[in-house]
Amino acid sequence: MGIIMIIAVDGMGGDNSPKAVVEGCVLAVKEYDVDIIITGPEDTLQQELNKYDYKKEKIRILDAKEVISPNEHPVMAIRKKKESSLAKALALVKNKEADAVLSAGSTGAFMAGSLFIVGRIKGIDRPALAPIMPGKNGPFMVIDCGANAECKPENLVQFGLMGKIYFENILKVNNPTIGLVNIGAEEEKGNELTKAAHKLLKEADFNFVGNIEPREIPSGDVNVVVCDGFTGNTVLKMYEGVAANIFDVLKEEIMSSFTTKIGGALLKPAFKNIKKKFDYKEYGGAAFIGVKGICIKAHGSSDAKAFKNAIRQAINFYDNQIISKIQQVLEKNEQTSIAEFEEV
Amino acid sequence: MGIIMIIAVDGMGGDNSPKAVVEGCVLAVKEYDVDIIITGPEDTLQQELNKYDYKKEKIRILDAKEVISPNEHPVMAIRKKKESSLAKALALVKNKEADAVLSAGSTGAFMAGSLFIVGRIKGIDRPALAPIMPGKNGPFMVIDCGANAECKPENLVQFGLMGKIYFENILKVNNPTIGLVNIGAEEEKGNELTKAAHKLLKEADFNFVGNIEPREIPSGDVNVVVCDGFTGNTVLKMYEGVAANIFDVLKEEIMSSFTTKIGGALLKPAFKNIKKKFDYKEYGGAAFIGVKGICIKAHGSSDAKAFKNAIRQAINFYDNQIISKIQQVLEKNEQTSIAEFEEV
């Protein structure tokens, strides 16, 4: 690795790939001080790149003949398609030829590949998908959002720890609050997992504020909410689904008469602000945290700007040395455990 | 029980009790052909009732000295407070002195009391809380919404069966669709529960349409969505939380300038329509289905109109003989199983 950060990009992942991905990369090298390696069929990528004006040496192509589609079985696909744009991008990080990897393709294949090719941080049992969501009063992180449909209580403590480091360093919130997603405010509420996790979280070395009911999540008042991946994915997708439905109905109502159309026109700037406020693309992609490399999953429907934001997020991750900070905390915890053990 | 339906009402449950509850009862006896027995401190209730003009013989008071608060441990409270307004209302159904029971108080105590005092329908292992929610394209049911934080796969099949009968008879949808809440459309996605439940649901005697991702739930395109109570409660509370946040932000934006205020004024009828469309109070309360009596949990913040709607829901439940229809299907299923067993 040189002095300039190098980012590996899966050129063939996402609904709008390679077009939006390539354009996002071009925007990024113009705005940030990074070099990019895009993986995918050389001819196709070169043709896309030729459309833009930029410093040619900033973006290289690494030829990859195969593509993993979102419909393929994630684990099978990543195991079989060694020549896929995704596998080759991940290998660049594994071999330390790149400092981070991004893809807007299959979430499952990206997570499986990050786990198998890049590998876990020692001490983290389950890496987790952790998007930043726009809340009413500020952004919040949901961790895990789908990597682990089943979790053990201790996994949720590790999620809290990683979330804290991310939030503190990238979102610059001092001593961020960590909440446990649960269906009641009281400690004894919930299922077996949340009851056991609550006990462990109370003892953890971060600002645990107790259970948070899903109704309170969208306010963003709690910075990091921890849960198993099934619950987190439900939270994330309900967020998207409810918001989309309300805006659809609002639009229908505005279009229903002349008066409401005028009203809608006058509220255009307001709607624009709201759209911006609730636009999760502003925060980049979802970090897959707990692996030994910077792995960012950009949203499948990313346009060029969203993809550029995901690249910015990878740069933040790198500049703030998130991974080595997680490693340091884990080492410290381990030493404390040994010390406590020796004291007995 | 006479020819006229008799409804037992917990007079002391809910944020606005006894005022809104009593007023809701008065509205109901004026509009529907029912008699009501309200439980609670006689003096307090009589004082409230004296405010209204109605046929005095339609509403009776059953004196109950104790009140269960939402902060009490549900199971403990229902066991200890035999003289509570809730326990006495439930006992009226158990003793067949009333045909249905409603409360806007503690959900936990209501469910525990319905289970202990009224009792399960034979063949239903886990009664479930099943509210009707307003979707973009129509109402939908989420079952279970919090009665059972842990579920077995076969519980979800019973939820589907009960949901189908409710939806068919009360919402008059022919052959309603049943979906399994899951974090992926494919059969093999999800956690252990959803994977096992999917297999059973495919074999069930109703219109199972496969997995439904939480993003799709708010459209209302699938009539009945089944899940464990932890997931259902998360779906319900995210729905409420996201909607409330969006409307809050919209309000703030409208109040931010003169132009947007005018725009907001012109859109008033549109907002009213939207509010009505997404008002879950329109559909009454949440039925606690699977017990041997009609048990309706009205929303804690019910006003008089919402409480009246919950009473209408109990009447629908009664008129359509939901409980005996559930019993009939269970008997039929049992006979089929015996026949299949004998064939072997």
Automatic annotation (TrEMBL), chains A, B:
Q: Name one GO molecular function term.
A: acyltransferase activity
- Chief localization class? cytoplasm
Q: What is its EC number?
A: 2.3.1.274
Q: Which InterPro entries match?
A: FA_synthesis, Phospholipid_synth_PlsX-like
Which Pfam families has this protein been placed in? FA_synthesis
- Give the SUPFAM superfamilies listed for this entry: Isocitrate/Isopropylmalate dehydrogenase-like
Q: Which UniProt keywords apply?
A: Acyltransferase, Cytoplasm, Lipid biosynthesis, Lipid metabolism, Phospholipid biosynthesis, Phospholipid metabolism, Transferase
Catalytic activity annotated for this protein?
Answer: a fatty acyl-[ACP] + phosphate = an acyl phosphate + holo-[ACP]
Q: Which domain of life is it from?
A: Bacteria
Q: Where in the cell is it found?
A: Cytoplasm
Q: In which pathway does it act?
A: Lipid metabolism; phospholipid metabolism
What the protein does comes down to:
Catalyzes the reversible formation of acyl-phosphate (acyl-PO(4)) from acyl-[acyl-carrier-protein] (acyl-ACP). This enzyme utilizes acyl-ACP as fatty acyl donor, but not acyl-CoA.
What family, per the record?
Belongs to the PlsX family.
Q: How does it assemble?
A: Homodimer. Probably interacts with PlsY.
What's the protein called, per UniProt? Phosphate acyltransferase
